Recover the amino acids of this structure.
């Protein structure tokens, strides 16, 4: 009985601690850390040029210009893409009006982001991309899953790292699928390892499609390693060839199973760098497999 009471006390203290932390974040100031051409729309409707370094009043809208903008709250950074708009509700909540944002809570607290389609809750120590519009897209590039709940619905989904969901305005979240990278400067800066892996693997795919005998050699090996494998209609040969190289890098003793998983992730829309991260392969390991075959 005493042990149970002690456990309940620990749980209660933890809940109190979390509530206090969230309250502290909600009360924290949000500062415009970047965005020299941003505009600030105040709660009374008046607008003026924003000043980098100023505190953003609660209820104010930050409208990013051509260079984007960045909002800092404690150690959390929210990057606004070109022409994007975000309302600062308080230190723990923001609202996306237009465009897209990157929520970099790698070293800071998460945030609740309202959109027209869903409420997105980015976890502490995570990196989340949210693209607004009629079809909302939420992708997690690092850290714990993000919660996505459709507006005025109970339906919600937890989106794990390297996956994304889409929500149409008035609709429900789609099943999580492998993340599709855009290759923009925000991904390059904030998710450099993933960006570099995708770049290198796409370069290898082009080599398999266009250079010498590398592609045919790999496809010949594929026909023996996975006899039941069939070509993908309309897809370049590298879809199959690079898939085999990656599968072999992951588990050379179970190539057929590993290949099926790689192909499934690719057919579900995942970028090569994302697929590699999910299955646990690096570009160097994939290239080494090709080198051993040639």
């Amino acid at each position: 009985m005493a042990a149970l009471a002690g456990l309940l006390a620990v749980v209660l203290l933890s809940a109190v601690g979390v509530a206090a932390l969230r309250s502290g974040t909600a009360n924290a100031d949000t500062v415009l850390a970047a965005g020299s051409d941003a505009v600030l729309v105040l709660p009374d409707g008046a607008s003026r040029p924003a000043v980098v370094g100023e505190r953003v009043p609660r209820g104010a809208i930050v409208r990013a210009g051509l260079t984007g903008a960045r909002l800092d709250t404690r150690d959390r950074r929210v990057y606004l893409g070109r022409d994007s708009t975000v309302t600062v509700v308080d230190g723990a909540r923001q609202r996306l009006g237009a465009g897209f944002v990157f929520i970099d809570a790698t070293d800071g607290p998460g945030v609740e982001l309202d959109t027209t389609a869903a409420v997105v809750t980015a976890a502490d120590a995570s990196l989340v991309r949210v693209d607004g519009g009629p079809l909302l897209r939420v992708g997690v590039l690092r850290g714990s899953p993000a919660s996505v709940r459709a507006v005025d619905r109970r339906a919600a989904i937890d989106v794990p790292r390297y996956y994304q969901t889409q929500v149409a305005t008035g609709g429900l979240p789609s099943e999580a699928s492998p993340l599709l990278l855009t290759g923009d400067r925000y991904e390059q800066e904030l998710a450099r390892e993933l960006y570099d892996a995708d770049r290198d693997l796409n370069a290898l795919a082009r080599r398999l499609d266009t250079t010498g005998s590398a592609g045919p050699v790999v496809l010949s090996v594929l026909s023996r390693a996975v006899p039941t494998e069939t070509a993908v209609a309309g897809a370049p040969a590298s879809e199959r060839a690079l898939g085999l190289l990656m599968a072999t890098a992951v588990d050379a003793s179970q190539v057929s199973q590993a290949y099926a998983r790689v192909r499934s992730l690719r057919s579900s829309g995942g970028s090569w760098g994302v697929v590699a991260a999910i299955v646990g392969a690096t570009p160097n390991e994939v290239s080494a497999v090709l080198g051993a075959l040639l």
